[in-house]
Amino acid sequence: MELRPEGAGLSDSGRDAAWQISAPNHTSPLLIQAFRRFTPRDVDRMLGGISSLVRKMLRDPPIVVVAPWLSPRSQQLLTERGLNYLDLTGNVQLRVARPAVYLRLDGAREDPDPPAKSPVRLHGAGVHALVRLLVDVEPPYRMLHLARAAGLSASYVSRTLTALDDERLIERDPRSKIVTEVDWQGLLAARVEHYGLLRSNRHQTYIARTGARTLYRRLAAEQQDQAVVTGSYAATEYVQLAAPAQLALYVPDLDQFAKAYELMPAAQGADVLLLRAANDSQLDRARQTGSGSFHVGISQLVMDCSSGNGRLPEEGDALLEWMAGNISRWRARQLPLA
């Protein structure tokens, strides 16, 4: 199999070049689109910039995006659009029908040469509160209203929205900058990369003397609003893959709660997990169920499950599937009051 250049300068953009990939029985052209720096927002810009003449000349060839580095989000969006890619750190995906080629390699997940002004990363208390609002509430909404509802500065929210827009996790009106669409699934996945149920929160495991289910029922009967349920017990409200084995609770003070409910510390065989929330926004919009227990909001629940251990990630996937099919049942129409 042979790969060789066929031509260059095929459009006014200066980014296009044509290559050929050949095998004994077949030859296929490849349209190369080269970038000095590529962001997820460039996916649509690139497709719009390819000349129809070039496509016609090359009979709608496979397109290969080439850049010094492509972020995981860029790779995801390129794959969704059926585009190939290659970066200089070794991230490669190349699919050609004839001759049959499939090549997939993983390179750097972090930019080895980041821009001087780094984009806002999805970690920290402020971004957690903003991500939860963007997921929990249906757009449209203005930046100032988001800042007020999240209790954040307007400048911080403005910078973060710009970064999310560049990553194509949100869409904004070009003139008013009103947020018009949110990729809530992509946003949750991006946040989970910087959040972990056990990594981000102080925690301790215990054995309940009378069993986790009995403790859960007792908390519901007492309407104990200081213990907020997450994990498998909360997920069963929406989906159930198997009977929950461990009761996960956010509580204000681990030691005091364990003493009050006679929990025994245990590293092995624990059926209760106590958590101290890393920031208050994790408990925003907690809700009381019909049984009387308090559960975290569904966006927090899916992040806890997706970033948890054991079978929790499977429950996180099932929750995402349920959410996608039942948006009107969990997504609010208006931002909450500050």
The radius of gyration computed from the alpha-carbon positions, rounded to a whole number of angstroms, is: 24 Å
Count of domain modules: 3
Number of E-type strands = 16
Classify the beta-strand content into a percent band.
Answer: 15-25%
How helix-rich are the residues, as a percent range? 25-40%
Let me know the average pLDDT: 88
Largest sheet: 7 strands, mixed
List the total number of helices.
14
State the separation between the terminal residues, measured CA to CA. 62 Å
Task: Characterise the protein shown here.
The chain is of the alpha+beta class and 338 residues long. The chain folds into 3 domains: 2-105, Trna Endonuclease, Chain: A, domain 1, CATH 3.40.1350; 125-192, Arc Repressor Mutant, subunit A, CATH 1.10.10; 197-330, no CATH class. 35% of the residues lie in helices and 22% in strands. The chain contains 14 helices and 16 strands. The strands form 3 sheets. Strands 1-2-3-4-5-6-7 form a 7-stranded mixed β-sheet, covered by helices on one side. Strand 4, helix 3 (72-80) and strand 5 (84-87) form a beta-alpha-beta unit. Helix 4 crosses helix 5 (143-150), helix 4 runs antiparallel to helix 7 and helix 7 (184-192) packs across helix 12 (298-306).
